[in-house]
Design brief:
The protein is of the alpha/beta class. It folds into two domains: 142 residues, no CATH class; 147 residues, no CATH class. 40% of the residues lie in helices and 15% in strands. It is built from 13 helices and eleven strands. The strands form two sheets. Strands 1-2-9-3-4-5-6-7-8 form a nine-stranded mixed beta sheet. The longest helix has 36 residues. It is globular and about 60 Å long. The two termini are 27 Å apart. The structure holds zinc ion (2 copies). The site of one zinc ion has 4 residues, from helix 9.
């Protein structure tokens, strides 16, 4: 199911830059860091002369930085000692760039060993998107909420804007026909915002709707009323675009191989899904970008007609799953998506090549190999500092 496909995907360019883009299981796109810093091929200046830039007076260099685009800033962060700090600050201050990290990892302690995220990258993040599969009232006690915010402050000291996102669908009992926009945010999410430290701008993002889902965003505001100060959640008009996936840490040892395999397993599935989501966007774009060409549903025995962008995507979401496999992409998208499939097949092949030897090393359940492997595995984990045993047990279950 891809019920949460965002509106407006068709307005974005669909070219070779889309390879690597991922989608959540419900169809929300996520941008890998490598794609985020990639210069669109058409506008890439050939080898910017950085040495000339470095000869400018420091003050002028800092001034020039203000006008640099993200790929250039990212290069400057690596090439020039003098301006690294400034380039880094500017790079991360991009108001559109929200970096997403896994909420369940933070909930289980936020230990560097357990997560996939590059731990040195985290302190640079200014806009943080913490994504939860499901925020459950049973586990989110006030104590746990405070611990969660403590970890956020410790791991992300620069994150002054934090968006807490929930992937589960919020469907409170409300009068039939009342607009979903008028529903107040759930009590649990209110509480999470209430207990957020005062120096953080906190947002909460929730999925709602029937058929096609839509995200609603609230932000915490403080209302000064005579000598009373209260906190309220205010609904925001716009939701940020797709978040950026934090680069992963270097993977080391058998634990590293395991984490690599585990992350690739998800990455491949999420890239497959993204190709499906972007395929729908390509069809919309073909008909409505710079032109207006209404079209009919390509599924046999369906006479739906689409005169405006988004109608086709909404129709595919609302109709049966096999319905959306019936469309045929036109050129140039057909070749582009064929290339995308080929890239995925290469990833699957590479995954198998690494998984084979790892599984032989891991051995069968109950065997001597397994006992030896488990011992080595535990030793590596313990060397890496605190970790969540529960999390590792569920990770390893993948291969039983
Ligand atoms: Zn057409
Ligand atoms: Zn149809």
């Amino acid at each position: 199911m891809v019920r949460a496909i965002a509106y407006g995907n068709w307005e974005q360019p669909i070219d070779a830059n889309i390879f690597g883009i991922r989608s959540t299981w419900q169809g929300e796109l996520r941008i890998p860091f490598a794609c985020h810093i990639h210069q669109p091929s058409s506008t890439a200046p050939p080898n910017i002369p950085f040495h000339q830039f470095a000869r400018l007076p420091a003050e002028l260099q800092l001034r020039v930085l203000q006008f640099c685009d993200k790929p250039t800033l990212f290069r400057l962060m690596q090439t020039s000692h003098l301006i690294r700090t400034e380039a880094t600050k500017l790079f991360f201050s991009d108001p559109e760039a929200w970096y997403c990290v896994e909420g369940e990892w933070l909930e289980m302690g936020g230990h560097p060993s357990d997560g996939l995220h590059d731990i040195d990258f985290l302190p640079c993040i200014q806009r943080l998107h913490v994504e939860f599969n499901l925020m459950d009232e049973k586990t989110w006690t006030d104590g746990n909420i405070r611990n969660f915010w403590g970890r956020v402050q410790c791991l992300f000291p620069q994150a002054k804007n934090v968006m807490v996102g929930d992937e589960s669908i919020d469907s409170p009992p409300h009068p039939v026909g009342s607009s979903t926009a008028s529903w107040p945010p759930p009590e649990l999410h209110r509480r999470v915002c209430q207990l957020c430290p005062p120096d953080i701008n906190v947002f909460v993002s929730i999925l709602r709707g029937d058929g096609r889902l839509k995200r609603t965003l609230w932000r915490r505001v403080t209302i000064q009323d005579d000598d009373n100060e209260t906190q309220e959640l205010d609904e925001c008009q716009n939701h940020p675009g797709p978040s950026i996936i934090v680069p992963h840490k270097p993977f080391r040892g058998q634990v590293g191989i395991c984490q690599y395999l585990w992350s690739q397993c998800w990455a491949i599935a999420n890239k497959e899904k993204a190709l499906r989501v972007l395929g729908l966007a390509a069809i919309e774009r073909h008909h409505f970008h710079g032109r207006h060409e209404a079209f009919g549903c390509p599924a046999p025995n369906c006479d739906a007609w689409f005169g405006r962008p988004e109608e086709f995507t909404t129709h595919v979401i609302r109709t049966a799953r096999r319905h959306d496999d019936s469309y045929v992409l036109l050129e140039p998208y057909q070749s582009l998506f064929a290339d995308g499939e080929k890239t995925l097949e290469e990833l699957r092949q590479r995954q198998r090549e690494i998984e084979g030897p790892f599984l032989r090393w891991w051995g069968k359940y109950g065997s001597d190999e397994r006992r030896a492997a488990e011992k080595e595995f535990l030793r590596e984990l313990e060397q890496g500092g605190p970790f969540s045993k529960q999390r590792w047990l569920s990770t390893m279950e993948m291969w039983e």
